[in-house]
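Researcher: Sequence recovery benchmark, item below. Answer with residues only.
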């Protein structure tokens, strides 16, 4: 086992897959000589050269279109968004091209592209750099959406995503890059369509993902001291949602709390609630509760920013209400 930061785990995953397959390449703003805004591509330019680690102009729609074209021809591009919020400038390419070309070509084209980078609410990055884009992309047919949450799953999921033949949005939370974890030596791959059972429990199912996994586990530590026994599921895959794992958990607990950083209106929790009501309504002994970010642009002011997102004490309070 080797202790590693998340940004190093992502870099190692990329390096390993590039070494194995010369069709894999990286492009984006400052990914080359600078090594990426969060050092996920550090030293890769020196190892692989200009043709496989491409510094692009600040023109997201252009280099996204180039990457999709490269994928059609058989290459396997990894696009780094310096900040995932900037990818709204390439929304047309991601939706009308990456998401749909396999279908509209009658299956003649595959689009094996990974679109990855930092996102989420950070430390006073302002509204335009703190967007929660999972709800934006969730409605696009043809895309897979992944949200890593630990260095261990970041590496295994990114390696699997690079090998997948579908377009994948790969979210990395900006506040998790310096998270440390012990990673096994050598290759490992994690499934892209399965949630992770983080903690088994009997009284309540808490479903979460990305940075909120860590807020939930802090809350669970406090709840456990008072004798509560919640079960925790990290979604990992935001599209498709592993609804079966949630259903299996509800057969034991019969109560559901969803904790997300996404906005409440049209968020991931809203989709989970709809699917649970369709498939597992009879398992519920209480109304589903969701804790989501405020439906406002993320403020720059630090105290106001904190007021928009969910923290452990709110999770503790909601869990106690549901279990009581």
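Model:
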């Amino acid at each position: 086992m080797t202790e590693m930061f998340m940004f190093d785990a992502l870099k190692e995953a990329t390096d390993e897959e590039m070494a194995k397959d010369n069709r894999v390449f990286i492009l984006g703003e400052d990914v080359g000589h600078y090594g990426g805004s969060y050092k996920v591509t550090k030293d890769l330019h020196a190892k692989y050269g200009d043709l496989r680690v491409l510094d692009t102009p600040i023109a997201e729609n252009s280099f996204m279109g180039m990457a999709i074209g490269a994928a059609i021809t058989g290459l396997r591009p990894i696009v780094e968004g310096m900040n995932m919020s900037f990818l709204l400038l390439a929304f047309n390419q991601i939706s009308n091209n990456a998401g749909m070309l396999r279908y509209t070509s009658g299956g003649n084209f595959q689009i094996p592209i990974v679109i990855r980078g930092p996102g989420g609410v950070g430390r006073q990055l302002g509204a335009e750099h703190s967007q929660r884009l999972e709800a934006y992309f969730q409605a696009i047919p043809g895309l897979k959406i992944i949200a890593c949450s630990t260095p261990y799953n970041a590496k295994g999921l990114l390696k699997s995503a690079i090998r997948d033949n579908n377009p994948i949005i790969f979210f990395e939370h900006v506040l998790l890059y310096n998270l440390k974890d012990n990673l096994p030596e050598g290759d490992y791959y994690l499934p892209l369509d399965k949630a992770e059972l983080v903690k088994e429990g009997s009284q309540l199912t808490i479903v979460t993902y990305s940075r909120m996994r860590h807020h939930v586990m802090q809350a669970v530590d406090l709840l456990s001291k008072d004798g509560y026994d919640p079960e925790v599921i990290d979604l990992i895959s935001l599209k498709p949602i592993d609804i079966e794992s949630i259903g299996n958990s509800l057969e034991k607990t019969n109560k559901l709390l969803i904790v997300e950083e996404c906005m409440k209106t049209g968020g991931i929790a809203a989709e989970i609630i709809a699917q649970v009501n369709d498939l597992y309504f009879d398992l519920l002994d209480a109304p589903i509760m969701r804790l989501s970010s405020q439906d406002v642009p993320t403020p720059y002011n630090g105290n106001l920013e904190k007021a928009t997102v969910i923290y452990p004490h709110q999770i503790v309070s909601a869990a106690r209400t549901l279990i009581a």
